[in-house]
Structure formats: C-alpha cells, structure tokens
Amino acid sequence: MHALQGSLFDQADETGLGPLRGLRRTELGAGAWVDHLPGWLTGADALFERLAAEVPWRAERRQMYDREVEVPRLLAFYGEGEPLPHPALTTARTALSRHYAAELGEPFATAGLCLYRDGRDSVAWHGDRNGRSATEDTMVAIVSVGDPRDLTLRPRDGGATLLRLPLGHGDLVVMGGSCQRTMEHAVPKSARAVGPRISVQFRTRGVR
Ligand SMILES: O=C(O)CCC(=O)C(=O)O
Ligand SMILES: [Fe+2]
Predict the structure, then answer these.
(1) Contact 173, 151 (CB under 8 A)
(2) Domains with residue ranges and CATH for the chain
(3) Which residues have C-beta atoms less than 6 Å from ligand 1?
(4) Which of 187, 189, 194 is the best mutation target for the ligand 1 pocket, counting ligand atoms within 8 Å of the beta carbon and taking the most?
(5) Which of 20, 25, 91, 114 has the lowest tally of Cβ within 10 angstroms?
(6) Rounded to whole angstroms, how far apart are CA atoms 65 and 87?
(7) pTM surpassing 0.80?
(8) Ligand 2 mean position to 19 CA, how many Å?
C-alpha cells in the first residue's frame, strides 16, 4: 500500500539534509512570507517508504453541516516530546529550529503528518489558526516527500491565489510571519494521475 512507483530520482539509502542557505523568501504582503528550498532532503525515497509503512495513519471523519464526511487524507500527530517516526525528521526539526532561532524565538516542537493517497486527497483552504497562531506570528515548516503536489496561498480576506508552489520530493517550505492569520493555504485536488505524497508539518508549542 502507498508504495512509491520508483519514478522518483532519489535512490540514496540514507536520508540526509542539504544546507539551508539556498532558502528563498517570497513576501506575500501584510507581514506574511514563504521560504522555499527544493530538494532539501537527499535519500527522500527511504524516508517516504518508512513513513508510509510505519506511521500509524488514521482516517478521520468531520461533521459537515448535517452529515459526517471522511477527511480526504490520512493523518498522524506527534506532540512535544514524542519520538518522531524517523531520525531524519528529528535532524530536520533541529536544523530548522537552529536556522530560525533568532526570527522565531522558540523551537519547532510538534509534527503533524498527512498522507495524500492520490490526486483525490487534498486539504481545503484554511489557516493553521488553532492556538497562538490566531493572534501571533509563527512559522509552519513543511517537508514534502513523494509525488509533487501544489501548495496554494491566497489572502484570507478574499482575492485570487497569490502563489502556487509545486512541492516536490524532498522539498522544504516554511510559511512565516502573519501567514496563518492573514493568508489561507490549500493542497487542491489534482485531476492528473498522481501517486502518494507525505507532508510533515513542524509547528511550535501551542499551535495547530
Ligand atoms: O500538505 C501540506 O503540505 C499542507 C498540510 C496542511 O496545511 C495542514 O495540515 O495544516
Ligand atoms: Fe495547514
């Protein structure tokens, strides 16, 4: 289940991290920004396979008006202090906490994981606004492995999509500043035939 089709290029056995100095920032206005670094991870195939096989993925249901619907992706969550499901994720979190220490003022603490099984899985427009992120600046750092999917961003108070970032195998994206309050993000469904993708979101304490 959820196996990678072998179409991806990165066959290194060990998952590793490149330097973060290649990060490029895009300002979105109103204090929101996005940092992007394609191909941060090497050996991303190995990470994908381990996560797909070993994370206790959960299907969730949510109330939508008068009916209960299946959330269109599988989920897992690792709270503060819980061991992460792959050592490369621990290394990644440490590297991100160090890189952003001065600007963020606190470490990344939790990891949310999503598994998009195919192009029908998605996440609808939203901000990660549960907790302090509803009122304070924060950062959400996302590591993406598996088939590429677009992350789209638009202003929360209306308006067209400002940015469409193709997130590929081993890529890093960081949403920062006011992004969770002033912008919304989504991973739209794809009509193309796409294989599975796993997203790992690192957040600070008290932010979901
Ligand atoms: O799949 C992604 O990279 C985004 C997931 C997301 O926005 C969320 O879980 O809050
Ligand atoms: Fe989100």
Answers:
(1) yes
(2) 26-203 (2.60.120.590)
(3) 112, 114, 123, 128, 142, 144, 151, 185, 187, 199, 201
(4) 187
(5) 25
(6) 41
(7) yes
(8) 25
